[in-house]
Write a structure and sequence with these properties.
The complex is a heterodimer of chains A (175) and B (102). With 175 residues, chain A is mainly α. Chain A is built from six helices and no strands. The chains are: A mainly alpha (175), B mainly alpha (102).
Chain lengths: 175, 102
């Protein structure tokens, strides 16, 4: 098919946004700008979910990643920014390009596997766009009941652990 | 219709950029950002494969939701550790955090 459909054009634009901002996240010097581009990259991934007609996941992506994780990182950055601001290089001092061949090698392997084995899995997805929220909720409360409850316990443990780890220890403070 | 390989290629590229960020950053929070990028790449893979192989069964999307849960927990605990390190060492430069290095 030589002509590019609207869907494919949208995918290209979103992929460009995701990859471009991800590269900036990995290379920019100012860590605050990195965080903003990380949020843009998360937004692009939400767009990919929409293209895959995963509407609930797209909403959750915006809520959890942009609304929670990015804001959390922003708080952590503000608490630690005194010594790690723009005047210091954010990357490793020497050899900062050394990870590049590692990343490219992994990409080559993944890409080769995908191109060779991915083509058989095609299903015509044109007529299956249904709202997914109800189906996911039903699946979570019936078939995936146990993982669902375990995830809630995990979140509780992580919350308590994060509070304990980040709390200022005043008991053995000499002052 | 978008070929499945496009999604898989996008996810592979995003994953490798995440790996590069994790390996090349000196700021601990930058490393956490790279990990989030890698988790997002895995999620794209899951959702795309679920969509193209079993469009009526949403197992891939449910799994992606669990990955998001774990990512949120990981970010919370990781940032708490970073803040704790900052309180003790006055910096979060992973080149200089060598207390547990033999």
């Amino acid at each position: 098919m030589p002509t590019i459909t609207l869907q494919q054009f949208m995918f290209g634009a979103i992929a460009l946004v995701i990859l471009g901002s991800a590269i900036l996240v990995a290379t920019l010097r100012n860590i605050f700008h990195c965080l903003l581009f990380l949020a843009l990259s998360f937004l692009g991934v939400a767009g990919v979910y929409l293209l895959l007609s995963a509407d609930f996941l797209a909403a959750v992506q915006v809520l959890v990643y942009i609304g929670a994780i990015t804001v959390l990182m922003m708080f952590a950055l503000m608490m630690t920014h005194r010594v790690m601001t723009t005047d210091i290089s954010q990357s490793l001092t020497q050899w900062w390009l050394a990870p590049l061949p590692i990343a490219l090698g992994i990409f080559a392997v993944l890409f080769r596997v995908y191109v060779r084995h991915g083509g058989q899995a095609l299903v015509d997805t044109k007529h299956h766009a249904v709202p997914t929220t109800g189906i996911i909720g039903q699946a979570l409360l019936t078939r995936y009941m146990l993982p669902f409850e375990l995830a809630s316990i995990l979140l509780l443990v992580a919350m308590v652990g994060a509070i304990i780890l980040a709390k200022e220890d005043k008991s053995d403070d000499p002052a | 219709m978008i070929p499945l390989e496009w999604y898989l290629g996008l996810s592979a590229a995003l994953f490798c950029i995440g790996i590069f960020a994790v390996l090349s950053r000196r700021n601990a929070i930058g490393i956490l950002m790279g990990i989030e990028l890698m988790l997002n790449a895995a999620n794209i893979n899951l959702v795309a494969l679920a969509r193209y192989m079993h469009p009526h069964i949403l197992t891939g999307q449910v799994f992606a939701i669990f990955i998001m849960t774990v990512a949120a927990a990981e970010a919370a605990v990781g940032l708490a550790i970073v803040i704790s390190v900052y309180r003790n060492a006055e910096h979060i430069n992973i080149d200089k955090i060598t207390t547990m290095k033999w």
